[in-house]
Amino acid sequence: MILKRIKVQMKFVGETNCYIIVDETQKKAMVIDPAGEVPKIIEILDTLGAELVYIYLTHCHADHINGVNELKKEKGGKVLIHRKGRENLENRVPVLAEYIGLPPIYVKEDSIVDDDDILHVGDLEFRVIYTPGHTDDGTALYCEKEEMLFSGDTLFKGAWGRVDLPTSDFDSIMNSIINKLLILPENTIVYPGHGKPTRIGDEKPIYLEAKPNID
Questions:
Q1: 200: part of which helix (H) or strand (E)?
Q2: pTM score > 0.85 for this model?
């Protein structure tokens, strides 16, 4: 497996992480949250000789999907998002894009995913984990074989995603983190939507200490 991270500078938001995953055997690829820097993404895919199979959106905030249409036009690939993201893409994304200084963004999904769905990228297998809280359509992707979790804006290094935005909820994000993500093996590397990677084992003590107050 080849993993590349592109840090995309977004106005008012800072850097958003875009991840490129390539199965070396079958030369199939998935791009997670193409926020921008699409020429760089294309260059990496072309250099590796990889076919783009999926464009995966961990949630529908504009700072994670700004490059979707350009990437799909150039390289194809099915756009995937949680089933609750369909309405958000239509109704909320254009407004939220303007909120962070971007022109309205109109993105159309090709297929929807739900909790425990399995995606195959060549020989790589990813399980969808529904993680509402930061948004009501948030998901993470877990690859057990590679011990990797792509957590979107749910779990960060030493922090969690914002819960002061439309469809966000503190209790929901705590439930998602504690009962869905922290139950994964402690060696699992977490690749978040913003900031540096971390490990499940490093994050678990933070939430276990807070759990009595949350409950």
A1: helix 200-214
A2: yes
